[in-house]
Write a structure and sequence with these properties.
- By secondary structure, the protein is an alpha/beta fold.
- It has 2 domains: about 1-415, ANL, N-terminal domain (Rossmann fold), CATH 3.40.50; about 435-534, ANL, C-terminal domain (GMP Synthetase, Chain A, domain 3, 2-Layer Sandwich).
- Helices cover about 35% and strands about 25% of the residues.
- Helix 2 crosses helix 3 and helix 11 packs across helix 12.
- The radius of gyration is 23 Å and the shape is globular.
């Protein structure tokens, strides 16, 4: 299919470095990256400076002995340095493995070992801990890890300082000859993203520039994005959303990537207003405080053209409130680390369509839904197309187990048709709750429960019954702070009034101070709830 993808323009022979050079020639002084750091203000890189620092970063990697095909692991908070490292690795012919700042020794040791990372770029301090010192300990244990590079004020003996070594030293001059002929091609492995979804064990998702370009171009086509757009994501930029859609998308188009090291709602609203952001994306968990902040203190968001939510189904009240707060409809998006944005709702859909659908396919992506027993309209979602990843790093058999002979990939998500050529995600297959052979509509139940004034958030899980095939249906609620707690009888009455059959009503109600969530996407980790309440 690769030739067909090229013929249709979803894959190409150019690279993101070719984009950078073209935009640098055409508008060298235009802002490419604007990064805000809490307490330190904004740092802007124009295209000319971004190009220079990209070459400098690549020279630094070569100085450290990085060879074509080696992996550089990067664990940083959101900052302009990420954009330079993303492009610098390409220039040096290296793969990049972005890692969330919340990862600690167990995860880092596993990821650095699997990727055989030669260089580990991390923080001097984060969350009261010292990732740089941890990196040194891991370097003593892992044969492949030769260099630890640290960003931050506190100096750690035995490591390289990120800014001094990578950005202040003119390696582009002393390593100019070594830079020739090293760049990664469009089909070579480039990006490694670790994901466990909300249930399974972590997997190293491997992408080329072309499998990243296809969804970038597809998303740009849906929303008419181009070099005039200023783009921001409320997300970690070491996750797919921030790395690809927040950085690579605007840089590929010749636009401006704007981001900051905080996801605080008021701070994000200020950022969007201050930099006249035109395109904004946020998962529902991060969108809620942003909407609340804008409603409490309206900013001038007249430049904002598109607002998109994704990574989890968007509750209907949030769709309505976001539309009111931003003065424009909220769009929905569904995708995975394995394939980026796959479906998006469209400008010609009804204004509240994000409350009912996760959109229709982009970029020549296809989907199919294999029905579940006893629930013909809902089934397991399969996808294929040019945005699909290359596989899982060093776990070829595992990746193959998710694919069929025709190239379809089992997403592990449950979905139904939305009636307009798209899909609505209804949950995860591993989170499926069955009652007497029937699929329990947990997502719909959660949306109904969240409408109650005494409920801030809700999750519905299935707990095993000793000696039985059925599951106990359990509603887990984070109560609203100002209201009396809802009771099990109230929960059942709420579902009854919404027209849901008593067959699916919860038999158990539990309360939590907070629902456990994946750090990058805000998705509820139901596996942790099951382990807690079983």
């Amino acid at each position: 299919m690769s030739e067909e993808y090229r013929r249709r323009g979803w894959w190409r022979d150019e690279t993101f470095l070719d984009d950078l050079r073209r935009h640098t020639r055409e508008h060298p002084g235009k802002a490419a990256v604007v990064a805000r750091r809490t307490g330190a203000g904004d740092r802007t890189l124009d295209y000319a400076e971004l190009g220079l620092l990209t070459d400098r970063c690549a020279g630094a990697l070569i100085e450290l002995g990085v060879r074509p095909g080696d992996t550089v692991a990067v664990q940083l908070t959101n900052g302009w340095e990420l954009a330079v490292l993303a492009l610098g690795c390409l220039r040096a012919g290296a793969r990049i493995c972005p890692l969330l700042p919340v990862y600690r020794e167990r995860e880092l040791a596993a990821y650095l070992r699997l990727t055989e990372s030669r260089v580990f770029v991390t923080l001097a301090e984060f969350g009261g801990e010292a990732p740089g010192a941890l990196g040194l300990r891991l370097a003593a244990e892992l044969p492949s890890l030769e260099h630890v590079v640290v960003s931050g004020e506190r100096k750690t003996p035995g490591v390289h300082d990120l800014h001094e070594f990578f950005f202040d030293t003119p390696w582009e001059k002393t390593r100019e000859a070594d830079l020739r002929g090293r760049e990664l091609g469009p089909d070579e492995p480039y990006l490694i993203l670790f994901t466990s979804g909300t249930t399974g064990e972590p997997k190293g998702v491997l992408h080329s520039q072309n499998t990243l370009y296809a969804p970038i171009r597809g998303e740009a086509e849906v929303f008419d994005l181009d070099g005039t757009d200023i783009v921001t994501m409320v997300a970690s930029y070491t996750h797919y959303t921030g790395f690809v859609r927040g950085m690579l998308l605007p840089l590929a188009l010749g636009g401006t990537a704007v981001f900051q090291d905080s996801t605080d709602g008021a701070a994000m609203a200020d950022l969007v207003a201050d930099h006249e952001v035109t395109y904004l994306y946020a998962p529902p968990h991060f969108l809620r405080p942003l909407v609340d902040a804008q409603r409490a203190e309206p900013r001038d968001l007249g430049a904002l053209r598109r607002v998109v939510g994704g990574s989890a189904p968007i509750p209907a009240p949030l769709v309505r409130e976001a539309g009111e707060a931003f003065g424009r409809p909220l769009f929905s998006l569904w995708g995975m680390s394995e394939n980026g944005a796959v479906t998006i709702s469209r400008p010609d859909d009804p204004a509240d369509w994000a409350a009912h659908s996760d959109g229709s396919p982009i970029a020549d992506m296809e989907f199919r839904i294999d029905p579940l027993p006893g629930r013909e309209e809902t089934g397991v979602l399969w996808v294929r197309g040019p945005a699909q990843c290359l596989g899982y790093l060093r776990r070829e058999e595992l990746y193959a187990s998710f694919c069929d002979e025709d190239g379809w990939f089992d997403t592990g998500d449950l979905a139904r048709h939305d009636g307009r050529g798209g899909i609505r995600i209804t949950g995860r297959a591993k989170d499926t709750v069955f009652r007497n052979g029937f699929f329990v509509p947990t997502t719909e139940m959660e949306e109904i429960l969240a409408r109650h004034p005494a409920v801030d958030e809700a999750a519905v899980i299935g707990l095993p019954v000793l000696g039985g095939a059925d599951q106990t249906i359990c509603a887990v609620v984070r109560p609203a702070p100002a209201d009396d707690r809802i009771g099990l009888r109230d929960v059942r009455a709420l579902l009854r009034d919404a027209g849901m059959t008593a067959f699916f009503w919860p038999e158990r109600l539990e309360f939590v101070d907070a629902l456990p969530r994946a750090a990058a996407t805000g998705k509820v980790r139901k596996v942790e709830l099951r382990e807690r309440f079983v």
